[in-house]
Amino acid sequence: MTIAQNQAAAGEIAAPLDLLLVNSTKSFTRRMIPDGAVARFGASLVKQPISVAEMGAGLAKEIGTIALGRSQRVPARSDKRFSDPAWSQNPLLRRLEQSYLATSDTLERLYAAADLDWKDAEKVRFVLDNIIEGLAPTNNVLLNPQGWKALIDTGGLSAYRGFRAFVRDMASRPRVPAMVEPDAFCVGETVAATKGTVVLRTKMFELIQYAPQTKQVSEIPLLMVPPVINKYYIMDIAPKRSMIEYYVQNGQQVFAISWRNPKARHRNWGFDAYGQAIIDAIDASQTITGADTTNVFGTCSGGILSAMVLAHLAATGQADKVGALTLAVTVLDQTQAGFTASLTSEHSAHAAIQQSSSKGYLDGRAMAEMFAWLRPTDLIWRYWVNNYIQGRTPPPFDVLFWNADTTRMTAALHKDMVLMGLGNDLVTPGAATMLGSPVDLGAIDCDSYVIGGVADHICPWQATYRSAALLGGKSNRYVLSTSGHIASLVNPPGNPKASFRTADVDAELDPDDWRDAAEKKPDSWWPDHLRWLTEHGGTIVDAPSALGAAGFEPLAPAPGTYVLEN
Known about the structure:
The chain has 566 residues and is an alpha/beta fold. Helix content is 43%, strand content 13%.
């Protein structure tokens, strides 16, 4: 497995909200066979007997051609599974490869011919992806030539290593091939390494203030609000790739919330508890810096909570607490928000709530297993071949290490999130509440900067664009970055393949029309966001000589203690 392949896998991972919160409580079999959708898929094909018969006859004819060695079918250039020369040079392996590709193509054509609504189409797509990818001959230990070569090269040691890795991974959740070794990185040394100190510790979070790396800084602090489903250091992933490091190196006063990994006794922490925690962090950042306002940067589920908090502040006459809002890969409008939204039904939602309530939390390992099966090629079978068939250790990669460092979600927050998603409550003013205030996203009148990823399968960029249009500010900018859910965020400058599109949000424009009209710029969106933050950062002042303030004395060096809890 190459570093590039590992980075591609990292681009696919994240914590898909609706899917993880509902489907991760189901058994493996129930997740793989969504209720009713497969039956309706079959019923749709039964109504098209001629088309189905033609496809079946075409497949039978091609299999005959393959058996005679006359087929010209080859894998797509982007399909690296069959890159070993044996797949094209060995007559038996070539026929197996071609038969698999022909069958996969027929299944794809049957899927395209079915008349399904969008929810059933997404569910069937999930099932077909896992069937097609799982049946690939490259996954068979007896057929994959890479496995035989590794066996010969290591004198049989690769088989022992692969079996040992398989037993270890299957012994406990998430029961998928490990994407990174558990000791590949060290939190506080090789990841989450930006210098700072914990200036506030509550029962729910630690607030980290980062040491300035410039002589002068923007007056208004920047508060980073991470997802509640994973640990905070995706924003401080590694030196030279860290978003937090980039901002402090360029004159921002950065604070970050590090959420506590909750246990069963914390089951009652819901929307209101997390919302109050964000307000406490905002107040602390202003007391420490002496600023009258704070710029807030929320990502994924942390962005949802941040938007709800700003709506509460607007409703209570405290809107000036926040000067500007940044939301990254955040879906506030769940309308047809991809596969994650398609799986949420009232019955499954309440079943999921009941299960987490009985435990007091939703287990992060179950969520990790669920989203791995969302992208079986990149997150399951690639590592199946590397770890088990070839008996190799996966290459170390910081984002995958973060992904494996799972957290739990409290039962109350799980319930609040699921019910909000089920009703798509944030679209309707007053349908959701935060700290007793009706949530009206249109009442958020500060400027906003909203980021989506063009290849994001978890929070589709069209949904994040529609979400940006819900905000009431007069100057709302939308940025469409290359890459997927995580890679669009961990996107430091200097990548020649990176680019982004940017323009103001226009509620009258369809997302695709916005994309066509938006200006395309090379490289990362980070420098553009930094300029925007500086414009909204107030005056330039001397950097503080010490961290913390009276009542907020330093408690521990960054990354703090909560991030180390399992």
